[in-house]
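@channel sequence for tomorrow's demo:
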Amino acid sequence: MWRRVLALFIKELLAVLADPRGRWLLIGPPLIQLVVFGYAASFDLNHVPIAIYNQDRSQASRDLAARFAGSPTFTVEALLSSGRRVNELIDSRQVEAVVLIDRRFTRDLYRHVPAPVQVIVDGRNSNTGLLIEGYAGSILTAFSLAWSRAHGGNPPPAVLDARALYNQTLDSHWFIIPGIIALLTQVETLLVVGLSVARERELGTFDQLLVTPLRQLDILLGKGLPGLLVGLAEASIIIAATVLWFHVPLRGSLAALYLGLLLFVLAVTGIGLAISALSATQQQALLGAFLFLVPSIILSGFATPIANMPRWVRELTLLNPMRYILVIVRSVFLRGSGLGELLSQLWPMALIGIATLAAAGWLFRKRVT
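structure tokens (generated this afternoon):
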């Protein structure tokens, strides 16, 4: 049996790797996507354009304006002399926020009463707006503390002392890039496996395969194992690039990481084989793969927390293997987790892998008979 499976396995690998363009498509695009996503995808705000309307024009208000101008987060695009252009600048997206320093600002500071400063934020992107408010609030808090120390005022009754575990600089790339390992591994595995049987049908060689001594199980294994190998190889290349190029620390167990990736690729291979069994052409297989990819990414916690989803959606995510591999990859990279800590994520993926491979085998037999 295994000699027949090995022969089909080698045939499938040659079909994928014999063509130089095929080899490039397996290695080049994932690395390009990793670089593009790694640099472009970020939750951090840098160089946010703002305008400042300083009605007070005192030394204290100029010092506060200078703090905004000197912040790495904000770039001052305009210094306003009146409030007439505020709406125009935000409506045209020339600025994301306008800082208004009231004319009573310095007077109130010396009187030790709250000095009004208003930040008008473009709320069309609510997430960005909240981040801008947070950055502006931190600048204003730092100014208030410095003013209290210099002029003998009462310090704020409570000061937040924040310390971030696992990602001390709060660099969002450390969160996003490990997730891209799972994302690109799923894409490549699903496409390689999903197109395998459909390609044979389209070329007219699938019927020839059926009259060989190969059993249905042999064909299923021979078609699935190359995708498994390609998926793990892709993951290894992307992990190396993540550590060596983006300098994301790999703190945990490689054994736990690769066991998780193996179970994940097995589950995705079963899904790819099921799609391939249902597809008569490569076009149908591609469409089926992308119909699965989009909801699996949205329901994985890749960009939005699963805890924020409605309850019925959270329960639906339990069927998504990408949900579990994202926890494993990020835990191994950032927390330094080992096998024992990740068992709760590993066994659901093993069950999903068994179920998807069994479903693929059943669909394959149905299509053959």
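heads up for whoever presents: The beta strands are 48-54, 74-80, 97-101, 117-121.
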